Amino acid sequence: MKTLCIQLALAAACALVPHLTLGQTTFEETLEDGDWDGSKEVQTDCSTCFSVVSPAFGARSGSRALRIEWKRSLAGSSRGSKSTEAKSATSPRIPWEQEFWVGFSVYLPDQDPNGMKVDGKNCMIFQVMGYSGCSPSNKTAALRLAGSGLDFAYVDKSETQRTFNITSNLTRNRWHDIVLHLRTDLNSNDSFAEVWLDGTKAATKYNFQMGHGGSCSGGTYLKYGTYQFNGSDYANRVLYFDEVRHQPGNVGYDAVAPGGGGSAPANQAPVASFTATPTSGAAPLAVSFDAAASSDPDGTISAYAWDFGDGSTGTGKTVSRTYAAAGTYSARLTVTDNQGATSSTSKTVTVTAPPTATAVWLEAESGTISAPMQVLSDAAASGGQYITVAAGNTSGSTPPTSGIARYNLSLAQAGTYKLWGRVIAPSTADDSFWVRVDGGSWIKWNYVEVGSAWHWDEVQNSDNGNQVLQLSLAAGAHTLEIGYRDDGALLDKLLLTSDLTYVPSGAGETAARLVSPTTQPHSQAEAVLVPNPAADHVQVQFVAPAAGPVWVQLVDRAGTVRLTQRFSARAGQNSLNVLLPSLPVGLLVVRVLTKDQLLTTRTLQVQP
Known about the structure:
By secondary structure, this protein is mostly beta strands. It folds into four domains: 17-255, Jelly Rolls (Sandwich); 275-352, Immunoglobulin-like; 359-497, Galactose-binding domain-like (Jelly Rolls, Sandwich), CATH 2.60.120.260; 528-606, Immunoglobulin-like, CATH 2.60.40.1930.
């Protein structure tokens, strides 16, 4: 006989109440008064494999249940089962072809108080067996625990085992009520089976073959808790049975349905739990939610529903939500278990207003500029001027030590900043600058977009795969330096912004002019300008603290640098003659600077 291994955790709270009628057998077991009576056969030599107990989790009905255990020390097959011959006045056994109903309750523990458990092996819960005189010999049908699901199994006329699925998820750690209606016709293709699980019809199988063309004159008997195994893999397992009833004939569901005098344990509510990452931050704030910590003590979680607190909802174990506006939100999770019970929990997500983007606009000519970098005029440039290195100067491999535009600026807030330049790159041979911030490493800004008109280009690091330069800067004072690299590249304006998505256009916004460096003047004494007013030239007299290069700048009232000239000064008194090209009539500020200091200032009246 081919073996079907079916495991059913039927915990039986069993008091023997036989109901005998002529021509059929009706009986039920509650096991309250001891082991099964003499009409029941134990199919093992292990008398200690069976016990009538009061389990810690409670019986299905009454207080006691039948516990069937498989022990590692046993060898062979069919260890740990109880079988019954349904007797009547006219027939010692149930005729094979007779239609009959079976009902019982089963408990499937993940682990019982003695450490035993049910695993996902293919194990029989309940089995109909040919008793004697069967041809072929493998007449059998069974309910089988397969993995985490429940199947109905039978053997057809070709002696091949067949199955169909009843449920793919049979919940552990709870009682299940099962009713089987079966007709096993050996002489036609007319067998059928119906299965109810926990009061709901779960599956029906019509017109199948089961041992077709054979006979089983000796009748049948019924087995509970059959556990077929070969070796230790199937040892040390346990099942519980209760509320066992059999009825031959088409008596109907109510005749054998479990529940006489007892009720299943109340469903326990699930436990909702989740994490939110992060729970605070500036808008827009992307938050990830994970409900993996949710659980159900007697079943499974079947649904996850989210209310994010901002009018939006979601479903699923893991979800995400981006909060666009500042505010305090209550994110709520509701979980539903496989029996419809729900549980909810909430977490607070705090979203602050996004920081106001900081933007610093700089006219390129407004910095401290050293030769050979120079200031030239162009009506299309912002402010009418731009900077470029004098022709014939290149510094392709190493940054220059002179020919640098230096800008001292202050940031209102810390953040990540992007640098843009308004440029002209006439060709791929004239398309780069050097860039440095706060005296750090020089960055090669290469491959500026080629074009003959002024356009904006984001500063990229060509030594790092042309990645767009992003600067992490603290609030406060900073120094930005632009050095020449190609003698044909022109720079009109700079933008340093914490808005990483902003793209400037046109001439950009009004520049924050650098009226003075961050250091204080060397001397409080003003420069002496001769003559003043002046028309075509002016002599600037001042005191220098040390010998070295100095720059004289003429700045108009709007802060625009109208003229920058470089001179070599000596320590002490200096007198420099500055030519005045076509400058607007009116007042200008004369500034005398070194690379790091503003030495002195004076107001000059320019005449026609």
